UniProtKB/TrEMBL annotation:
It holds the Pfam family Phage_integrase. Belongs to the 'phage' integrase family. XerC subfamily. It is found in: Cytoplasm. Site-specific tyrosine recombinase, which acts by catalyzing the cutting and rejoining of the recombining DNA molecules. The XerC-XerD complex is essential to convert dimers of the bacterial chromosome into monomers to permit their segregation at cell division. It also contributes to the segregational stability of plasmids. Keywords: Cell cycle, Cell division, Chromosome partition, Cytoplasm, DNA integration, DNA recombination, DNA-binding. Residues 1-85 form the Core-binding (CB) domain. This is Tyrosine recombinase XerC. Its main location: cytoplasm.
Amino acid sequence: MTLRELTEEFLLYLSAVRGLSENTVKGYGNDLLQLQEFLTPELDVQAITRENLMLCIGQLSKQRKSAATVNRFIAAVRTLFAYAAKLKYIEKNPSLEMKTVKLPKRVPNFMTTSEVNELCEEPVNDELLWKSRDHALFLMLYSSGCRASEIVSLKLTDFMDGGRSAIVTGKGNKQRKVYFAEESRKALAEYLKDRKKLLIDLKIEKIPAELFINLKGHPLTTGGLRYILNRYSGVEGTNRHVNPHAFRHTFATNMLGNGADVRIVQEMLGHSSISTTQRYTHITTEKLIDIYNKAHPHS
């Protein structure tokens, strides 16, 4: 079996059997495509050695790839060869001695209260694209702590409790309940009126199930969301570029900063490990120290 054939079968397994999301499978595919480029696609998997794989790591280092990128590549390769070994496509797993590199500790980026409020109101103040949609989109991202992929996949049928909450499907097809504040629900109601009118004007026969759509009446993609946010956070808007995940970071930081239990926030964010959620407690601690240093007369 060639490396190309093994990769194709493995990606199909991830999608059809393990039920991983399209984005996750695509991520594995990108890393394993790079492996094929390093080793050639038609190489027999039985012939791949530990030394071959270590040379691949060396190539990534030469390309100045980040530690996170290298670790993701290693994880993908390990999983591929574990699959091959399980099905006895190989006699010896050459990836067993591949060690991940140490990651620098990174504090998640977040917006201050004034910054997130300004960005959420930017579609109303400067209508760059679609005022009601973008206003609702930003408020709902901030209100719920949803990932970009979760918010664009949200369907009208996912809502519960009169729009106060919804069921979203996150990483690993895990479902959880998220909540929407009154301000975001009001913005959503305005958007739904415009959405209905647009679909009538465009004479769309098959109404999209997804809540958020583009101006052509098609479901909004994560790429589309990034484009919208780039416009409003760029020079035409707040001139402070942020990515969609900044809303999620800000949601978590504010929840913990205002006294929410870390395990409740973990559940709201859909984190499998509490250590991921605890990164945000460092932010709130640093924020409190900064406030203390600025306010206390003896500091």
